[in-house]
Amino acid sequence: MAITAAQVKALREETGAGMMDCKKALTETDGDMEAAKDWLRKKGISKAEKKEGRTAAEGLSRVVADGDEAVIVEINAETDFVAKNDKFLALLDKTIETLKQYKPGDLAAALETKIEDGTLNDAFINATAIIGEKIKLRRFEIVNKLADQHFGLYMHNGGQISALVVLQGGDDQVAKEMAMQVASMNPTYVSRDEMPADVIAHEKEILLEQMNNDPAMANKPDNVKEKIVEGRLSKNLEELCLVDQVFFLDQDKKVGQYLKEKNAEVVKFVKFKVGEGIEKKVDDFAAEVAAMMK
To answer: Which residues contact 54 (CB under 8 A, 6 or more apart)?
Structure first.
């Protein structure tokens, strides 16, 4: 299968690996992007696991709560200047108002929601025409809590990151601290109980392949490899699980320990980082990749 410059560029930006390594990975996996990522990880080449998803778009996120309901939303634009544009901010407010009022079930339903001047989608089209940049509603979530639960809300850097936590027990302050933890430490799950078995098995497979590709480890007995892999796996899972992370306000405690002291439990969290996982066009780099492919 012929590998294109665009494929190499996309894999390079997602993994941080070298261009020739990306080309080889795609060649070895017949252009399968996900398989190529795994190939790079198994060879110990990819830097992706040490990074959060690549931030490659601009705009704002926001989280608001009213009583037992909260809304978290992300709207993207082409440049960061738009975040200061009054019309963009008005569209953000209008979007949140619409989501709160009509509670659409998904993105398509949200855009089709009728407002005073057409649909919400029409509002985005109009904003694009007026502002001169593509404006897009990327994602949102409407979260409800019970009367005896607490919302924790936190927005970092004016809305570049928004985090929302639902807390059982504790108080509003603990809930806010958990939202700050989520925003700063980027967990994927509340605890290991939430982690699908196939996710754990996949991580273990990657670590084992990394070890087998390490000359210093390749000849070690299987039982030794297994112990090393289990240790590394446990460390990786700690980073993924909120309750296993080090508490950002007290480096001597894990989040789970702090929550226990406060008689609290995180029920749910949502985090949006603006542009996370969206590829951003970089003209010079694209030209460099194209030249490499010749």
So the answer is: 13, 14, 276, 277, 278, 279, 280
